[in-house]
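Section 4.2 – Deliverable D4.2 (structural model, holo form)

The reporting period included a commitment to supply a predicted holo structure for the target in complex with pyridoxal-5'-phosphate. Inputs used:
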Amino acid sequence: MPDVAASPSLEELWMPFTANRAFKRAPRMLVAAKDMYYTAADGRQILDGSAGLWCVNAGHCRETITAAIREQAGVMDYAPPFQMGHPLAFELAQHLARMLPEGIDHVFFGNSGSEAVDTSLKIALAYWQAKGEPERVRFIGRSRGYHGVGFGGIAVGGIEANRKQFAAQMLPAVDHLPHTHDLASNAYTRGQPQHGAHFADALEDLVTKHGAHTIAAVIIEPVAGSTGVIIPPKGYLERLRAICDKHGILLIFDEVITGFGRLGASFAAEKFGVVPDMMTVAKGITNATVPMGAVCVRHAIYDTVVNSASAGIELFHGYTYSGHPLAAAAGLATLEVYRTEGLFERAASLESFWADAVHSLRGAPHVIDLRNIGIVGAVELEPRPGAPGARGFETFLKCFEAGVLVRSTADTIALSPPLIVERDQITHMFEVLGNVLRSVA
Ligand SMILES: Cc1ncc(COP(=O)(O)O)c(C=O)c1O
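Output (structure tokens):
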């Protein structure tokens, strides 16, 4: 073992999506977690208002999940997934397939949301090639979309800050739909906004521009999370589905955040009653205990790519850790917790209490919009003139100091706790946030 002091140097670690220098001057360290709370290095209890990074859906350090991981680590730590298998990966795929919308019944495992997204784009290309339409190569993402950090994900993603350092090497055939965030028409909506189904019609314009025969797939987050919680207007997803159907374009829902109960349903596809052709999932699949992601595909996609291929490997894609035994064990135990504790139903039963709590901040300083769906909420703040994001980040810092973990993206504060959250904890989160807003310049 290397000889490391009890308090390690902060220098060597290059932290992701972090202002490294500022963090290392004033670190925020978490050292333990249980159920709804983190313990900070100074011993303070921090109420987890963001389920970690939208991923700890069943709450922290759940005994049956950690026990399953421990047990599997002692039985078989690793099994190669290429030309070999182990039962737990098959079992997890089977359990997952049972939860998926009708018709989506095959699962490809990776280790993250980013990998799931890039995998889904590759599957789309492989599908069209196998189907004899190899000219369908174009991907359509959406402005303000977040699909992780792979080259595929940032190309179809629509967050400029994530693209500009890498802009010299984007995927070449990508276009974007407009986002649906429309404060002028929809501010302070509870649930799905009334106005904005027409934003889907931009897909018709892209079809006219490029020709449907060149478009492989559309990928969107049904509810955009990382870009500040953008909730689909009523009728929007239905219209997007209809236009994809009309032109034979695959529709991919990136359900990395929306999956596993966060919207008060198993998936956004169930919540909104719109079924895509592929779904990417990650985060809540293992309650974030062991990294895992997956692409879930319609029967016809698997059938076309796999069953119609000549003998041999059908898809030249996969990861050393696809369906890793520890992740599979964690996933199975996690799905069991969701099922036995009825956590998706629990989230649904909290939705209206949650909505009231979110909208209790109406009139609080700096607030220009409040929105909610399932147990996801967003508090959009007026940006400081000339300093976009500064007010949001200061709000995040002050909430942390006050013992509540929230997420800030630019000037939107997003909250979405583990599904085990209690009503008084919800009330506390929004009281703290309200107090912080009154103290933030
Ligand atoms: C919708 C969506 N897709 C993909 C990702 C990327 O997931 P990961 O960070 O596990 O690569 C995220 C992460 O937040 C996400 O929210």
